[in-house]
Amino acid sequence: MDLEALTIFRTVVHEGGILKAARKLHRVPSNVTTRVKQLESSLGAELFHRDRRRLHLSPQGRVLLDYAERLLNLSDEARQAVVGGAPSGVLRIGALESTTASRLPAVLAAYHQRYPEVRVELSTGTNDALLAALGARRIDAAFVVEAPSDRSLATLPLFHETLGLISPVGHAAIRRPQDVQDDSVISFPSGCAYRRVLMRWLGDRRVASMRVLELSSYHAIVACVAAGTGIALVPQAVLATLKSPPVAWHDLPKVHARRITPLVWRAGEVPPALAALQLSLRG
């Protein structure tokens, strides 16, 4: 079992199949298939369940993936320690769409300028989807809102966000949940931490009777609010970045409005590229 075989195995898992892995690795699919089968043969274990043209990790494959990630990260760290110089390789990070739009452009631009040999792969999703991706080792770190109290995760608090409600222009002032009892709620799908903030403010009894329109884009959410479809909760920093139709802003109580975005990663697993990102963010 060599590092190259582990790299191929990990890429097949992350890319979701042989063809995509082959394109990413600049290999022919038959070569990738052969290397996976050779790895299975050397271990005496089936790493994937094969369902027609799709591959699904077997229990043994999930165990190996955990070790493969750690071994490959250790290999990168060892190379960096011996050779020195700037970090290289791939850094896979996840972020909320709001953080991606309002906070990360300047961060990633500065990081790329300082560490051009690192290829950053950024994916967006809800708070819960990002934590699941981190746990499944599909990403190395994530910018989230609600990080669980889990010793397996390390966190670095970063961005202070102010949340508020937006409504169509001309909507009556919103100071309490009763002021929106006749409105629809427009939000990201379940798993969104900001959606949970809004639901906590509204209260369980009122939430049960409200209509909810689920969208996955702040541009679409703001446009629908401006058109009179309903109300929504958004970070103030995101609203400032959007060139969109006018909406009215309504403050929330501080207990709901103030949130901090942390960077979260698996404790004890800090490859050089991630360490460089943490250093940039702390600076």
List the topology elements.
Blueprint: H1 3-15, H2 18-25, H3 29-43, E1 48-51, E2 54-57, H4 59-83, E3 89-95, H5 97-102, H6 104-114, E4 118-124, H7 127-135, E5 141-143, E6 153-167, E7 185-187, H8 193-202, H9 204-209, E8 212-214, H10 218-226, E9 232-235, H11 236-241, E10 248-251, H12 254-257, E11 258-266, H13 272-282
Parallel strand pairs: 3-4, 3-5, 7-8
Antiparallel strand pairs: 1-2, 5-11, 6-9, 6-10, 6-11
Helix pairs in contact: 1-2, 1-3, 1-4, 2-3
Number of strands: 11
The biggest beta sheet is recorded as: 7 strands, mixed
**Helical element count?**
13
The sequence of SSEs as H and E is: HHHEEHEHHEHEEEHHEHEHEHEH
CATH architecture of the domain at 160-259: 3-Layer(aba) Sandwich
In CATH, what is the homologous superfamily of the domain at 160-259? Periplasmic binding protein-like II
Structural class, by secondary structure, is alpha/beta
Provide key terms for this protein.
283 residues, 22% strand, alpha/beta, Arc Repressor Mutant, subunit A, seven-stranded mixed beta sheet, 13 helices
